[in-house]
Specification:
Elements: E1 3-8, E2 16-22, E3 25-31, E4 37-41, E5 55-57, E6 60-62, E7 69-71, E8 77-79, E9 88-89, E10 91-94, E11 97-101
Antiparallel strand pairs: 1-11, 2-3, 3-4, 4-9, 5-6, 6-7, 7-8, 10-11
Protein name: Rieske 2Fe-2S domain-containing protein
Domain Rieske: 4-100
Pfam family, one: Rieske
Amino acid sequence: MSWVDACAFDEIEVEDLIRWDHEGRTFVIYRSPEDEVYCTSGLCTHEEVHLEDGLVMEHEIECPKHNAAFDYRTGEALRAPACVNLKTYPARVVGGRVEIDL
């Protein structure tokens, strides 16, 4: 495992997300209603639109362009036009910091 420090846990509001760019790749880190953290690829699998401006509700992220939706906990594509799941990455909080396993 290769855990990488991404941000402070407090930087992410409950039921929200932040964009995180690392080594030329873009990710999105979410804070669930249960105060857990999750990480997915930052681009929608439909047309590679960035998800940072998407709507987060409960455990879903909705793409801002065509309203595709994903379960950010599993990456599962929930609504067309997306039919390919998002890639997910293990995330954890250690000492108030969010770490992502890349």
